[in-house]
Amino acid sequence: MSEELESNARGRRVSPALVVARREWVELLRDARWVALVGIVVALIVAALAVGIVERSRQTRERAAAAEGDRRVWTAQGPKNPHSAAHFGQYAFKPIGLLAIADPGVDAYAGSAVYLEAHKQNEDRFRSARDLGSMSRLARLSFAFVLQIVLPLIAVILGHSAYSGERERGTLPLALGLGADPRALFLGKALAGASVLLGLLAIATAVLCLGIAIFLPEVELEADFFARLAGLVPAYAIYILGFFGLALAVSAAARGTRTAFVSLLVFWMLNGFVAPRVAGDIASRLQPLPTGQAFRDGIAEAKRAQFGHDEKHPAFVAFRNRVLAEYGVDRVEDLPVSFRGLSLREDDHAGYRIFDEQFGRLRDLVARQDRLRSWAGFAFPLLALQPISTAMAGTDNAHHHEFIRSAELHRRRIQDAASAELMEHGGVDGRAYVAPASLWEAIPSFSPTFPDARLAWRGRSLDFLRLGGWSACCWLAAWAATIRPRAA
Amino acid sequence: MLEAIGLTKIYAGRTPALAGLDLAVPPGEVFCLLGPNGAGKTTTVNLFLDFIRPTSGKALVGGVESRLDPRAARRKLAYIPENVMLHGRLTGLENLEYFAALASGFRTGRDELASLLRKAGLPDEAIHRRVSTYSKGMRQKVGVAVALAKRAQALLLDEPTSGLDPLSANEFAGLIDELRREGMAILMVTHDLFLAHRCGDRVGIMIEGRMVHVLEPARTDHLGLERAYLEASRKGRVA
Predict the structure, then answer these.
(1) In this structure, are residues A152 and A243 in contact, taking their beta carbons and an 8 Å threshold?
(2) Less packed terminus of chain B by CB within 10 Å, N or C?
(3) B238 to chain A, minimum CA–CA distance in Å?
(4) Where are the alpha helices (DSSP H) in A99-222?
(5) How large a percentage of chain A has pLDDT more than 70?
C-alpha cells in the first residue's frame, strides 16, 4: 500500500516522538505531586530573587550613605598640609553589579571597601560573610543556589524513572513489543523533560528581569546586562539539560528505579556539596595563598629598600643628590620646586611598583586557584558553571580585582595630587605648608564604573568547553543506553 | 507467520533455557505453549520480541528475523504480557490512542478507537476513566484493543489470563477466538489447561527448554491434555 493510501486508511501520520512527549506532559500535568513541586520551585526562585534584591538594595544604600559620609569628612578637613590629608585618607566602596542579585559569588567573602591612605595599598575590608551564622555559610538561598542545586535535583527526579520506572511498571516492554522506535521514545522523553526544565529556567529568567524592572526602577537594563545574561542563561541551560541527560542514561542502564535514583542522588550531592569544597581545598594546597601577616611582611620587607620619611636612608641621600644634579644646584633650598613634594612623590612611585608586584602576585595566585578548581568541571559540572555564573554576575575574583585595581588608581591620584600641591606650593621643607580647604573638594571622590561584560566573557571559553563537554557526554551516554533499551 | 528454527537460548553457566525449538504458527492459528515454570515458554516469547538475543537459531515474524531487524518484526506483532500495564494517569482511550500511535505511526480517530475498546469488551463507562482504576481484566482488554488498532498480523500472549476471574478469562478466550477468525497468528503461553484446550488449534508441551509434545485439542478432551502434560512433567522431573 502506498503511504498516501495507508495514511487515508489509518488516519493522520504522527511523529512518535511527539506522541511520547505529549503523553509525558499529560501525565506530569495530572500528577499533583509534580504540579506542587513545580510550584515550590517557582516559589523558591521568587523568594531567592527577593532576597537578592533586598540584599543588593541594602548594600547599595549602605555603601552610598557610607561614601557620602566619608566624602563629608574628607571635604571638611579644612586648611591642612596635603600630605597629612593624604594620610587622613578616604574609603573606596565596591560597586555592586546588577546581576549580583542572582549570584552573590565571592562578594560576601571579599571586602566591600578599601581604605585609601598615603604610602599604603590596603587590603579590602568589611566582609559580609563575617556577619553570617554558621548555617548561612553552608547554604545561602540565592537565585544561583536554586538554579545550581535545586533544578538539577528536579532533573534527577524527572529523569530517574523515565526508563527504569516504565520497565518496572511494564509499559516499556509493552511499547517496545508493539514496535515502538527506541529513538522516538528517547526523543519524546528528552523533549518532554527538557521542555519542563527549560520552562523553569525561562520562568526564572523572566522573574529575574521582571524583578529588576519592578523593584529596581532606578536601574536601566542596558546592553551590558543582556550581554551577561547571554552567557548566564545558556550556561545554566547546558548544565541543567546535562543533568537530565545523565538521569535518562542512568535510568536506562540501571537495574531498577531505586538504584537509578540513589546513583543520581549520590552524584548530585558530590557535585553540589562535596566537589566544590574538595576542589577548593586541593587548589589551596597546590597554590597556597600567603597568610595576611606573611603578605604584609612581604610588602614591609620590600619597602625597606625605600626611604619613606627617613632622611638618613641611603636611598633618600642618593635621590637628593640625583635631584640636585638634575637641577644643577647644590642645595635643596635652591630648587625651583619643593624638595619634600618631590621626595614624597618619588617614595610613592617606588611604593607603587612594590604594591603592583605584591598584589599582582596575589591576584595571579587566586586566578591559578580558580583555574585549578574549574578543571574538575569535566567531571563535576558545577565547578565549570560557577566561574561562568559569577563572572556573568560580576561577582567573581576578576571583578573584585578590578575594583581593587581601580581603588588603587584612585589612591595614586590622591597621592600624586597631594605631592603636586606640595611641590608647587610647599617650599623647601613643605611640612609647614597648609593647603586651602578647597583643595579637598577638587580631589574627586572614588566613582568607579562597573566593568563591562567583556571582563565577564574573558577566559570563559574553557569553562564553557568543560560544561558543554560534560553535558554532551551525558547525552551521548543517554543515547547509547536508550537506543537498545532493556525491556526486562 | 511466526516461525522458530532451531531456536536456542543458553544463559551463561546455566542449562539451556531453550534448546533447538522448531515451531511454525500460520495466520489464523492459535498455538498454545504449556509447561511448568522454567520450561522456556516466556523465553520463546522474548526471543520473538528480541527482548533477549538467541544463542543460536532464528525467530522469524512474517519472514523477518527478529534479531536482525527487531523493529520490522515488532511492527507485525502485538504483545500482551501476563499483566498489561498501562499509563495510570491516562484513560483507557488515551492509552489506546498512545500505544496505537506509537505502534503504527498514525493517529486513529477517537470514535474508531472507542469502538475497538468496546469490541475488546471494555464497558462504555470505563473508556474515559483513568486506567489506575481498572481491574486486571480491563487492562488486558485494552491490550487486545491495542492489537486490534495496530492491525497486528501476529499476537504474542504471555499468560494473559493469569489472575483473572473465570468470567473474565472466559471473555478473554472469546476475544482470542475472534482474533483467530480475523486471521491473526497467535502464540499463547499459559499454565491454564482449560484455556489451552479451548483456544488452541495446537498445544505444545515444553519441558526444560524442549518441545516434548504437540497435541491437537480437537482430537483429545481436556483430560487427555492434562494427562499428557502431567506425564511429560513427571518425565522431565525424573530426567
Answers:
(1) yes
(2) C
(3) 32
(4) 134-138, 143-145, 151-159, 164-169, 171-177, 182-215
(5) 94
Going from the C-alpha of A198 to that of each of A179, A240, B219, B229, the distances in angstroms are 30, 8, 65, 59
Q: What is the Cα–Cα distance from B10 to A105, expressed in whole angstroms? A: 59
Cα–Cα dist B226/B221, whole Å = 9
| Cβ–Cβ under 8 Å, residues A172 and A227 | no
Is the Cα dihedral B49, B50, B54, B59 positive or negative?
positive
pLDDT, mean of residues A436-441: 84
Ramachandran angles phi, psi of B207, nearest 5°: -135, 125
CA atoms within 13 A on the CB side of A220: 2
How does residue A453 score in pLDDT terms, banded at 50, 70 and 90?
Answer: very high
In whole angstroms, what is the distance from residue A430 CA to residue A311 CA? 14
Tell me which of A431 and A474 has the higher pLDDT.
Answer: A474
* pLDDT attached to residue A126: 63
pTM: 0.87
pLDDT of residue A132: 54
- Asked whether the beta carbons of residue B51 and residue A177 sit closer than 8 angstroms, the reply is yes
B220 — pLDDT class (breaks 50, 70, 90): confident
Kindly list the residues of chain A whose beta carbon comes within 8 Å of any beta carbon in chain B. 6-7, 10-14, 16, 19-20, 23, 26-27, 30-31, 169-171, 173-181, 184, 487-488
Q: Cα A396 vs. chain centroid, distance in angstroms?
A: 3
Report ipTM (2 d.p.): 0.84
pLDDT in tens, B180-202: 998 999 999 998 888 888 889 99
**For residue A217, what is its C-alpha cell?**
526602577
| Concatenated DSSP letters of A366-415 | HHHHHHHHHHGGGTSTHHHHHHHHHHHHT-SHHHHHHHHHHHHHHHHHHH
Distinct helix (H) and strand (E) counts, chain B: 9, 11
